[in-house]
Amino acid sequence: MNEPTIQINDLLEVDNKVNLVEAKHVLVEGTTSGVPDGQSVVVSFSDGTTTLDRTAVVREGGKWRLSSDQWADISLFVNGNINITANVSNLQGRPAPEASKVLVLDAQLSDLSAAPIQAAINQVPVVSSVSALDLARGIDVNVDLSGLNLSSGDTLRLVDATGRILAEELNPVSDGLNTLVISNQRYPLRDGSNELFVELLSLIHI
Predict the structure, then answer these.
(1) Has residue 143 got a pLDDT over 50?
(2) Is 152 exposed, middle or buried (0-12, 13-18, 19+ CB in 10 A)?
(3) Greater confidence, 138 or 42?
(4) Which residue in 12, 19, 139 sits closest to 77, CA to CA?
(5) How many C-beta atoms lie closer than 10 Å to residue 113's C-beta?
(6) Mean pLDDT of the residues in the chain
(7) How far is residue 114's CA from residue 195's CA, in Å, rounded to a whole number?
(8) Is 112 a residue whose pLDDT tops 70?
(9) pTM above 0.90?
(10) Domains observed in the chain
(11) Residues 173-205: b if buried by 16+ CB within 10 A, e if exposed
């Protein structure tokens, strides 16, 4: 008789890190051997203080994954390492050696709207921190272009560390704040840097 075993897939949430948006629905999956289809897998999440249990079912080929109604909401856990364990037994009740992984939770708050970002010609990028919560609830980012000689057709952009455009404004003003709105969950940052970059695309610089 084959001894039961269980594994958790190496990559969780793409990069083994979760921001606040992702932390509301964490999916874990893996494989088993020596365990028949239909056996329950107990998946536990812990930040060292709080523990949350979820249940998956072994499917054909020994694969298992948390279904959508069992995705874990760890958004209220303490930031840092989240320990994940998975346990299963065979029909005779013999438990498999526990599988474990560590997921990093980074759900810190920030408030970019409190202080304008000061941009300057050819100063690309200008960097500021942004959190997953900002992106989840939507955030206004104020950019100050005072003192710059802007021309018609200039474009002000906010991009993430991968160059993906989060928001942009055509013909920004230099005599006041330019407010760019990042709208909710369409743009979760996945590279782990949680940085915004300001780009000023200008046709003429004097």
Answers:
(1) yes
(2) exposed
(3) 42
(4) 19
(5) 12
(6) 75
(7) 16
(8) no
(9) no
(10) 5-105 (2.60.40.10), 112-201 (2.60.40)
(11) eeeeebebebeeeebebbeeebebbbbbebeee
Q: What is the DSSP string of 123-151?
A: ----EEE--HHHHHH-EEEEEE-TT----
- pLDDT, tens digit, 9 for 90 and up, residues 29-76: 999 999 999 999 999 999 999 999 999 999 999 999 999 889 999 988
What DSSP state is assigned to residue 97?
A: P
* The token pair that represents 148 in the structure block: 């710059």
Amino acid identity of residue 50, one-letter, is T
How far apart (Å, rounded) are the C-alpha atoms in residues 88 and 57? Answer: 10
Residue 112, phi then psi, degrees to nearest 5 = -75, -25
Which residue has tokens 């930040």? Answer: 47
Distance CA 107, CA 97 (A): 31
